Amino acid sequence: LLDILASVPGVSIARSGGIGGQIYLRGFSSNSFRSPMFIDGDRFRGRNTLQLVYLAPDEVERVEVIRVPGSVVYGSEALTGLVNVVTRSYTGDTSGPFRFTGGGWSTGYGSAANSFTTYDWVKGAGQGFDFIGGFAGRWGGDYQTSLGTVPNSDYQSVGGNIKLGYAPDIGQRLELSLRSYSEVDGRA
């Protein structure tokens, strides 16, 4: 997600440590709480330097960067603008018996920290219900640089997300979204 945002005009990215990073809009960083992040229109209240890595690219439908004056409707926290990440929702037929309709996985390796990432997901529908759920994990040791090891740059992140939907009638949809992550990093 940091790489996606780095290509947007007017948005700057600052990486911090193994998996951390923050965004800058109009000179303010997400650490100042003046450039907040929203997920599906809801304010994300996690650790600001880690918030962008809790979303795997496979679960993102689109990323919206909303600048002033459009951000005014999101409240005073969005003084400089905001980033709204829209996650995928189930699209397809929910009638008939319950069935799994798709899924996938992705993995990655980083040599600087001897790190490993994974995201596994599945979706299904039936009886008017639908769901998309996923598991994400990131593990890495201390960063290795040409000057030696960077102490306390190790990290571990494990968590997941699920989005449940129900369509009682045509044109109506109820949705419940849950996201939980545990983060351990070596920063002092």
Architecture overview:
With 188 residues, the protein is an all-beta fold. Helix content is 3%, strand content 52%. The protein is built from one helix and 14 strands, in the order αββββββββββββββ. The strands form four sheets. The chain has a five-stranded antiparallel β-sheet, with no helix packed on it. The chain has a four-stranded mixed β-sheet with strand order 5-4-7-6, with no helix packed on it. A three-stranded antiparallel β-sheet has the order 1-2-3. A hairpin with a 2-residue loop joins strand 2 and strand 3. The longest helix is centred in the N-terminal third of the chain and has 5 residues. The radius of gyration is 18 Å and the shape is flat.
Instruction: Spell out the helices and strands N to C.
Output: HEEEEEEEEEEEEEE
Low-confidence stretches: none
**Biggest sheet, in brief?**
5 strands, antiparallel
Could you tell me the mean pLDDT?
A: 82
Radius of gyration, Cα only, in angstroms?
18 Å
Number of helical segments with 4 or more residues: 1
Q: How many angstroms separate the termini?
A: 25 Å
Total strand segments = 14
Give the amount of beta strand, in percent: over 45%
Strand order of the largest sheet: 8-9-10-13-14
Q: Can you tag this structure with a few keywords?
A:
188 residues, five-stranded antiparallel β-sheet, 52% strand, 3% helix, mainly beta
Blueprint of the fold:
Blueprint: H1 2-6, E1 11-16, E2 20-25, E3 28-29, E4 37-39, E5 42-43, E6 60-66, E7 82-87, E8 99-110, E9 115-126, E10 129-140, E11 143-145, E12 148-150, E13 155-166, E14 174-185
Parallel strand pairs: 4-7
Antiparallel strand pairs: 1-2, 2-3, 4-5, 6-7, 8-9, 9-10, 10-13, 11-12, 13-14
